[in-house]
Write the structure tokens for this entry.
Amino acid sequence: MSESAPVNNRTESKAGKRVTSFNEGTGRLAAILLSPTLIVLALVVLYPIVSALRESLYTSGQRLDANGFIVKGSTFVGLDNYSAIFHGDTADRFWTAFYNTTFFTVVCVVLETVLGVAMALIMHKAFRGRSVVRAAILVPWAIPTVVSALLWKWIFQADGIANTLLGSQILWSTDGWQAKLSIIVADTWKTAPFIGLLVLAGLQTIPAEVYEAAKVDGASVLQTFRRITLPLVKPALLVAVLFRILDTLRIFDLPFVLVGPHKPSVETLSMLGYDEAFNTRYGPAAAYATVLFVYVAAVAYVFVKLLGADVIGEARAKKPGGGGRAQRKRDAALPAPAVGVTSVGGGM
């Protein structure tokens, strides 16, 4: 009778325990190494969010108590600050700011995506002076936003370059469509190179043999772009667009410096929250900030789910042979090799 099967089972059990123990030890080590970063993130991200959420439930300032005396401090008002945003006297101002924020996001991101892809295609071509062209394209993105806003403010002055070239006297910094247009132009000029840079990184990962094969097959330039270039740079492009959407939804400094505050045609949600905080109405300001946070989070979630932007490398982990947790599970499920299995007793 052969005893090889029980020995083999015991060996596999011991090997499985060793793999499990190794994975648990690796997980504990990873948690220890990541704990400083997680603590810092909790302090600089989680705590402000919780603090803003708590502040949005209070109102601060002077009030009269039951005896008619003036009392300073915060008063718990529950969801009154949120109710005032959507239905109070400031509801019209909020919805105008909400529309402006969404409008700037859609228009600017679309223009930046088109121009950014074009910039990436230009920077990817091999020609004399390519390094100079790359540097010139990336310069606007390297300029701080406030400095860029001041530059465009001088350009859009009544006696500035824009009116000189157009031969008109447009008051760009006044409330109206011209203020919207000035912000769109300045923001597109400033951040289109960012998308171009990320798309360029994606273009450089495409093998040249793919284009050579397409050329041999007689594919036109447009067909090559649609069938090869665009699908292969899609992951990098989606991540770039997502970053720009999230950044534009929080736009504040460019319209604030370029056009100025209290302009209904360009006032955004960030500017609205700033104005409330500047006037020491911290409860409503925190409520505006919370609403903006929820709006940004919802847009990011929908974007990732609908378009499949692989921001954290989740797709790679799901592929056969991918790393991460999936790979560890596969390693643990593999049978251990039979070591030292011998036939005991009356074998075959």
Q: What stands out?
A: Confidence is low (pLDDT under 50) at residues 320-348. Residues 80-316 form a domain with the MetI-like fold fold (CATH 1.10.3720.10). Residues 4-55 form the longest helix (52 residues).
